[in-house]
Amino acid sequence: ARSALGIQLRRFPDDFIFGAATAAYQIEGGWNADDKGENVWDYITHNNPNYIVDQTNGDVAADSYHNYKRDVEMMRELGLDAYRFSFAWSRILPLGFNNYVSKSGIAFYDNYINEMIKYNITPMATLYHWDLPQKIQDLGGFANPLFSDWFEDYARVVFEHFGDRIKKWLTFNEPREICFEGYGSHTKAPAINITDVGTYICAKNLVIAHAKAYRAYNRDYKPVQNGECGITISVNWFGPLTNSTEDQFAAEMRRQAEWGIYAEPIFSKDGGFPKELEERVATKSLQQGYQWSRMPSFTEEERMFVRGTYDFFGVNHYTAYLVSANEYLTDQIEPSLLDDVGVGIHVPEEWPKSASSWLTQAPNSIYNSLVHLKNKYNDPIFYITENGWSTTPSDSLFDEDRVKYYRAALESVLNAIDAGVRIKGYMAWSLMDNFEWLLGYTERFGLYHVDFESPNRTRTPRKSAFVYKQIVKSRTIDPNYEPETMIMTIE
Ligand code: PNW
After folding, report:
1. Is the keyword Hydrolase assigned to this protein (predicted)?
2. Please, which of 26, 189, 197, 244 could form a disulfide with 40 given CB 3.0 to 4.6 Å?
3. Residue 339 and residue 329: Cα distance in Å, rounded?
């Protein structure tokens, strides 16, 4: 294929899956529709409105609970192969446990999925995207070792009802954000902020829960349903600031802290937590007066149980940082994951900035991440399950910076394919604007703008939607493509 200017363009393989992603709490609304139970985001936003910068919540959000047909229409407009969405545990099991299954919850997802299937859009489903039933949180949530049994129970209900139509499963979305942000700090619900052990205890229970769900699927559903199951981990690139041995080691420690804690037990040959980090935390814990390591160990049986529980590796990738040794600056006096690692991070001035403080456009960072993971974890199959760019609510529909970001990111995917990485698909974050957690509606990630003031939550395509549509259709990235109009049609 050639661009308008006659440049030879690289092609995505014919079986490469292009899609877009969302998550239940961020789009659905219907927070108390029918018999839906309360989840940790309902609880925290209702009881502590100031937790969210604009004092909003996901009570209505993009109201996909009522607009799901419009959502599928947008997928058809974009010509998507696939759509990644998540199930709300508290909509399926309002009481948290599997003693009671909601008929209306099941019906909602049946309708949504059937509408996708009707138009040949492959559903990819996440079982858990951060909306824990509050009752399970009251019992300790991910800190309770029984959590993994309750999660398996929930997973089985979902496999049972929807596995005839869903062939691509993800157990958890982003363990780092669940554990580090939700338990080891306060930047996601339930904001437990127990910095010394919160992240580590959650990490162990989470990977065991993942493994229980994976093994349940493998044993009892896969033989008839024939699907695949993985997990999505947020993998941003952390490279060394300089080539010094110290900075290189610092970068490796930071990678272990960011995603190695969750990836190593599942994807590595030996299983268990990353060894250097495990030693570091054990040593520091003793120095700090603990009689045990703040990072729990795996029994031999647990290590083997979790190891190898994947059919593919889901990667949420957004950005990169440069890491330096001996520059850890903090006023935190409590032991914590970041203190255990004790490194500094830098973002070069020249990397373009988004509306989100943590998100810049770093060069070729998908390639760097995937090649690293391929070598470290024995060449698994990958999907990019999220990648995207934020703008502010007042930015125009002509989102040139988002267009640039997507083109560069997809070029980086092509670089990875050329390097032999087995990457099979890419999901843009997000199909539409949604509730951006602590940032409420102040940061926008959508290919479609959502008018949160309008009763129907009107969706309007941005320029990036037209550009993505052209990429999906042509399987190439034309750097000069310009949409002729901003009127969207279905082809
Ligand atoms: C993802 N980081 O979280 C989530 O899966 C989405 O729900 C969310 O809306 C989206 O990114 C945009 O924020 C991330 O620190 C959290 O690089 C943190 C990072 C990246 C993604």
Report:
1. yes
2. 189
3. 9
Q: Which helix (H) or strand (E) holds 128?
A: strand 122-128
Catalytic residue among 38, 77, 174, 302: 174
CA angle 180, 183, 186 (to 5 degrees): 85
Query: How confident is the model at residue 326, as a pLDDT?
Result: 77
**Could you tell me which of 135, 178, 170, 144 has the C-alpha nearest to residue 42?**
135
Q: Contact, 377 vs 263, CB < 8 A?
A: yes
| Burial tier of 438 (Cβ tally within 10 Å: 0-12, 13-18, 19+) | middle
Ligand 1 site residues, Cβ closer than 6 angstroms: 23, 26, 173-174, 177, 234, 236, 316, 318-319, 358, 386, 429, 436, 445
Q: Catalytic annotation on 386? A: yes
Instruction: Answer yes or no: 177 catalytic.
Output: no
- 3-state DSSP percent of the chain in helix, strand and coil, to 5: 40, 15, 45
d(CA 323, CA 341): 11
Going by C-alpha positions, the residue among 491, 441, 433, 444 that lies closest to residue 466 is 491
Q: Is the pLDDT of residue 331 over 70?
A: no
Query: Which amino acid residue places its CA nearest to atom 16 of ligand 1?
Result: 177
What does the pLDDT look like over 356-389, one tens digit per residue? 999 999 999 999 999 999 999 999 999 999 999 9
pLDDT score at 330: 67
CA of 3 to the centre of ligand 1 (A): 33
- How remote is the CA of residue 8 from the centroid of ligand 1, in Å? 34
pLDDT digits (tens, 9 = 90+) for 294-305: 999 999 999 999
- How many of the other CB atoms lie within 10 Å of CB of 482? 11
Rounded Cα gap, residues 146 and 141, in angstroms: 9
Mean residue pLDDT of the chain comes to 97
Nearest-angstrom CA–CA distance, 183 and 201: 9
Confidence label for 8 from pLDDT (cuts 50, 70 and 90) = confident
- The conformation of residue 391, written as its DSSP 8-state character, comes to B
Our separate counts of H helices and E strands in the chain read 19, 13
d(CA 127, CA 470): 31
The pLDDT, as a whole number, for residue 328 is: 72
